[in-house]
Amino acid sequence: MLPSTGIVKTLCQSLKEFPVQALVVDPVMVSTSGHMLAGPSILDSFREELLPMADIVTPNLKEASALLGGVPLETIADMRFAAKAIHDIGPRNVLVKGGDLPASLDAVDVFYDGNDFYELRSSRIMTPNTHGTGCTLASTVAAELAKGSQMLSAVKVAKRYVEAALSYSKNITIGGGCQGPMDHLLKLKSTVQRRPFDPSDLFLYAVTDSRMNKKWGHSIVDAVKAAIEGGATIIQLREKEVETSDFLEAAKACLKICRVHGVPLLINDRIDVALASDADGVHIGQSDMPAQVARVLLGPDKIIGVSCKTPEQAKQAWRNGADYIGSGGVYPTNTKENNKTIGLDGLKTVCLSSKLPVVAIGGIGISNAQAVMGLGVPNLKGVAVVSTLFDRECVSTETRKLLEVLKESTKIAN
Ligand SMILES: Cc1ncc(COP(=O)(O)OP(=O)(O)O)c(N)n1
Ligand SMILES: Cc1ncsc1CCOP(=O)(O)O
C-alpha cells in the first residue's frame, strides 16, 4: 500500500470495478524501523474505504494504534483488543504484528478471524536488517493465498519465511546506515546447510522397508549405506513397524550418511520424526497429514512429496505446496496392500496434469524401468523402488544394476 490518500481512493475504486481473488492490506504508516511513512489524513480512507474490502490487514503495533485513534498497545491482551477492534472496521481477518512488543523474547503476532484468536510465535532474530519485513510478510501471505492456501496457513507460512529470511540475513552489511534490508533470496544461496531440492534427485529413489531389512538381516543404516553406494539419488525411510524412538535414532544416523554423500533423506508419513531428526523432508499419502499443514510445520525449505493417483490429487498437491509427486502403483506390488494399480496410462495422465516433478512407484524393477522412463513425459524424473533394492541380499549390487538400466533408458530417450 502506498501512503497517499489519493492513491488509496483510486485503488479502492479500481477494486470495486475489478474484484481480486484476495486483498491483503499492509497499512504502511510506520516502518519497522519506526519512521512515519504517512500522515494522519490517510487514516480516514483506510478506515472507511480500504479496510472494509480487505481479506486481511496486517498492521504493526504502531499502525494498529494509529488506526484505533492512538490507543497504547503494549501487551498481548492489548493486541487481541486491537485485532478485534480493527476487525470491527470491516476486514475479514486481522494480523497484529508484535515485532516491537516490549519485554518479549519471542516475536508474537495475534491473528483474529472474527471467531478465534491465534497467538503466532517465532523466535526474535536480533539483527539491524529488518527493513521490508512487513511488506515481505504481506506479500508472502498474498502469494500463499494465490496458491489456494487457507488464510491461517498462509499467515503461518509467511511468518516462517520472514523468520528464516531474517535469520539468514542477520549478519550481512548493506550500505552504511544503522539499519539494512533483509535478504529474500535465502533459497537461492549456496550457504544454506542443505542444497535446494533438485528434481533430478528423483532419478533413483530408494524407499526402505523394515520387514525386508529384517528378512535379510540388514539394519536400516546398512541398507541405506548400501543403496547410496549403489547410486541411489534420494532415500526415503518407510518404516511401518519400528518404535518411534528407534525410528528417530535410525533417521539421525541415516541423515549423517546422506549428508556426507549429498543425498536427500525423506521420512515417510512421520512429520514428527522428520522434524526431530532434521531430515530433508517427508513423503505423505492422501490420508496422511495434509500437505499444506505439513508445509506449515516443516517450513519453506523442506522437501514435501505427495502420493497422487489422479490429476485432481496432483493439482491439489501443487496448490498445497508439494515439491514433487509420487505416482502409482504403476504395476501390481506386494509391498503395499490393497494398492490400486494405475498403469502406465494413469502415470502419464498424472504427469501431464501437473507442473510438479513426478516419480513413478509400484512394482518397478530391472525388467520394466525402461518402459516407465520411456513414457517420455518431461516431468517424469525417475522411479521409486522398494523390493527391487531391499528384498535382496546385496542391496548395493541391485541398486547399481537398476541405475544402469535407468541411465540406458535416458540415452535411448535422447
Ligand atoms: C515416492 C513415493 N511415492 C508414493 C509413496 C506411497 O506413499 P503413501 O501413499 O503415503 O503410502 P505409504 O508409503 O505410507 O504406504 C511413497 N511412500 N513414496
Ligand atoms: C509404497 C507404495 N506406494 C505405491 S506402490 C508402493 C510400493 C512400492 O514397492 P515396490 O517397489 O516393492 O513395488
Automatic annotation (TrEMBL):
The record, for InterPro entries, names: Aldolase_TIM, HMP/HMP-P_kinase_dom, PM/HMP-P_kinase-1, Ribokinase-like, ThiamineP_synth_sf, ThiamineP_synth_TenI, TMP_synthase
UniProt GO MF annotations: ATP binding; hydroxymethylpyrimidine kinase activity; metal ion binding; phosphomethylpyrimidine kinase activity; thiamine-phosphate diphosphorylase activity
Bilayer-crossing regions: none
Named in its record, the pathway it takes part in is: Cofactor biosynthesis; thiamine diphosphate biosynthesis; thiamine phosphate from 4-amino-2-methyl-5-diphosphomethylpyrimidine and 4-methyl-5-(2-phosphoethyl)-thiazole: step 1/1
Pyridoxamine kinase/Phosphomethylpyrimidine kinase domain: from which residue to which, for each copy?
A: 1-177
Q: What is its EC number?
A: 2.5.1.3
Please give a single GO biological process term from the UniProt record: thiamine diphosphate biosynthetic process
The Thiamine phosphate synthase/TenI domain covers: 204-388
Enzymatic reactions: 2-(2-carboxy-4-methylthiazol-5-yl)ethyl phosphate + 4-amino-2-methyl-5-(diphosphooxymethyl)pyrimidine + 2 H(+) = thiamine phosphate + CO2 + diphosphate; 2-[(2R,5Z)-2-carboxy-4-methylthiazol-5(2H)-ylidene]ethyl phosphate + 4-amino-2-methyl-5-(diphosphooxymethyl)pyrimidine + 2 H(+) = thiamine phosphate + CO2 + diphosphate; 4-methyl-5-(2-phosphooxyethyl)-thiazole + 4-amino-2-methyl-5-(diphosphooxymethyl)pyrimidine + H(+) = thiamine phosphate + diphosphate
Which cofactor(s) does the record list?
Mg(2+)
Pfam family of this protein, just one? TMP-TENI
Which of UniProt's keywords are assigned here? ATP-binding, Kinase, Magnesium, Metal-binding, Multifunctional enzyme, Nucleotide-binding, Thiamine biosynthesis, Transferase
The entry's cellular-component GO terms read: chloroplast
Instruction: Name the chain's protein.
Output: thiamine phosphate synthase
